[in-house]
Amino acid sequence: MGQAGVFTRAASTLGLAGTVFEKVASAEEGFAQDSSGPLPLLELESPVPETAPGIPSAASGEAAVEGLLRAGALCLDGRAAAMVTPPVHKSSLREAGYHWEGQTQLLGKLGGTRRFGMLACSGRLRVFPITRHMGIREALNKLDSAMVARGLRIAHEAARNLLGLENPRIALAGMNPHASDGGAFGDEEERVLLPGIKAAFEEWGFKTEGPAVPDIVFHEGAAGKWDVVVALYHDQAFIPLRMLDRSAGHTVLVGSPILRTSPMHGPACDLAGKGGADCEPFAQALLQAIAYVDRSCSKSSIAEKSSLL
Asked: What global pTM score does this model have?
């Protein structure tokens, strides 16, 4: 899904010969095409941005939102099993008049669920950030025990429903150095995080370890000790993730009927239109989406067979 003008320009930049894409009238027509032929393209109705590639604009924001909403609708209607999205520049969204913090919030609201979030993965490290795109002071001020408990619930449900883990090992990262070291460096662990862990267990039966020392727990997650590490804010989650293999990193929307993956990097405006961007992260996000769909289909098939016994 995209704009023929943008695809034509990209093909020219890359020196691709022949017919690279072919417009289709529907998703069904595109899925029915031979995979060895040109890429099927569902044309967006939004006008092609007149600005140079890499320059945020209202037109770019409009096109991005239209693509997200239409692809999300295809998933909700059962006409597509999943969607894979490139990064969206937040400035373009705002110039177009949209104030979602990012794709996760937009698609989460579109899916109509009350609990949704983003699971970020690289290798064996999977991290669920309780807060996402907001200033760190705002994020820390907003955190309370109820928000922590809700975040833990989403992480546990994602581990079961998306990853297929019956008894996931989940740890909550602390907020302060050494997870406050018994109150020596702040009281948020005792006042906010521990009550959140307790509430998630008492209300829903979800057992979580922690609060864990932040500069240790992510290394433990990468080594396989934890199935999911729950982080408190964006950079606490993504700094350790980005120190791992960035080509294999991806994010996935959780808690929503829309299955969406995306590469774990930004829009790279400095590379736009120059033909030098690395396509491997996007390819890996696509492969991950296929893997999640296969796992879901396998799980559904087993459940269906069990119901017939």
From this structure: 0.90
Identify the DSSP state of 261: E
Strands 250-254 and 39-42: unpaired
CA distance 11 to 4: 10
What pLDDT, in 10s, does the model give residues 56-91?
999 999 999 999 999 999 999 999 999 999 999 989
148-233-138 Cα angle (round to 5): 90
Q: What is the tens place of the pLDDT at every residue in 144-171? A: 999 999 999 999 999 999 999 999 999 9
Residue 285 has pLDDT above 90, yes or no: yes
37 SS3 class: coil
Q: Write down the H helix ranges in the chain.
A: 4-14, 27-32, 58-76, 90-95, 103-111, 136-142, 145-161, 188, 194-204, 214-222, 234-242, 280-308
Q: Comparing C-alpha atoms, which of 284, 152, 142, 117 is closest to residue 230?
A: 152
The size of the chain, in residues, is: 309
